[in-house]
Structures are given as structure tokens and as C-alpha cells.
Amino acid sequence: MKIYSLGNKKPKISKKSYIFEGVTIIGDVEISENVNIWPGVVIRGDFDKIYIGKNCNIQENSILHNDYNKAIILEENITIGHGVILHGCYIEKNCIIGMGTTILDNSRIPKNCIVGANSLVTKKSKLEEGTLILGSPAKSIRKLIKEEREHIEKNYKEYLDLSKKYKKELIKEIK
Question: Which residues form a coiled coil (predicted)?
Fold first, then answer.
């Protein structure tokens, strides 16, 4: 894990989080408790703040970056899938962001949503709370069904449990 201050911008990371080796965190980044961040993730808060709320997981090779006056805010209970790009956006609580998705500056994902894999969310996207969001550009397709809403909670809890297992059982093999 590589953690860097940039001038007076210093990361703040809860000791109750799990950050995998191979993650890079730079600048004005705040990571709450029970967050887990997986290999290859880059979180670069050099222009504005990046806040990651409790119980979020950010999976392999995702990138979080922003521009001036475009903070990234992740509320809580959010799953960020493999290879996601977040740039200057806001994600409300209880969401899954599917693999390969890109969410651009000034975009907002409402609470209780699932954004399907490889979607492109632009700032002009009109998205509704509690929906399945798909496409390029992304649109709210339909309301989530009960099983999908339950999957959001199940997913972040599974990753929290997995991070605890890794913290306790992972052994670095030296060859």
C-alpha cells in the first residue's frame, strides 16, 4: 500500500478498514470504518476531497479522481465493481456500481440503485432512486425488484466479511 500526502493534503484512513497491498492513495482522501479496498485501486485526491463512507468496498483496478471543485463522495454501503472509473461524482447510500462503469464529473447516483456493468453516467443523466441504471449514456430502466434491493446489502456485507478473512488469514508467499 502506498499512501502519500500532497502538500498539506493528507489521507485520513480508519484503522477499522482493510486496504490491500498494491493500493495507491494520494492527498485529500478520507476513508471511514469498515471500508475495504482491493489490489490495484488508485485514489487520487489531488484537486479536491474524496470521501469514502462506512461499509464501502472498492474492487480491483478501480480509479477515483476528481478536478477542482468536484469532490467525490461515496455515502455508505456501496460496492464499486472491478475496473470502475469515478471522476468528480456523488454516490448516495446503498448502491452497486457494476464492473467497467464510468461515472463522470457532476453526476449523482441516487440511493438504492444498481448501475449495470460498462455503463457511462454523464452529468446530464436523469436517474431515479431505487432503479436499475444501464447504458451509454446511462438511464434509469426500471424500479429494482425485492431480490435486487436485498442483493445490494448482501453484496457489501459479503465484501466486509471477505476483507476480515483476508486481514486475518492472508499470508504473503515469498519465493
Answer: 142-169
